[in-house]
Amino acid sequence: MSEHKDKPHIVPYKTFLLVLLALLVFTLISIGITSYDLGPLTVLTALLLATAKTILVLTYFMHLKYDVKMFAILAAAVMLLIGVVIFITFLDYLFR
């Protein structure tokens, strides 16, 4: 079994600023999308944008990119479970 050695990682401020800019752009897109009537695609688009923002926050601000891969796998499993629950909820809502 290999040992996990804590290697310090220094993330440049430019990376954080680019992620912040991407989060702001995704937020503005999600606000702008509410002015259009896309029918059922409105909710899907909002959920996809929220998922993209969540992945950015988990990857860079919570340092999952530089941590043990098992944490990333567990986070992905939780995201998958949440997606399945939302999918089942949509199926229940659509076929009532």
Description:
71% of the residues lie in helices and 0% in strands. Helix 1 packs antiparallel against helix 2. With 96 residues, it is mainly α. It has helices at residues 13-33, 41-61, 69-94. It is flat and about 55 Å long. The protein has one domain.
For this entry, give a set of tags:
mainly alpha, single chain, about 70% helix, flat, 3 helices
* Fraction of residues in H or I helices: over 70%
Please describe the biggest sheet, giving its number of strands, its sense, and whether it closes into a barrel.
none
Structural class: mainly alpha
CA gyration radius, whole angstroms: 17 Å
Total helical elements:
3
Give the uncertain stretches in residue-range form.
none
Strand content: under 5%
The domain count comes to: 1
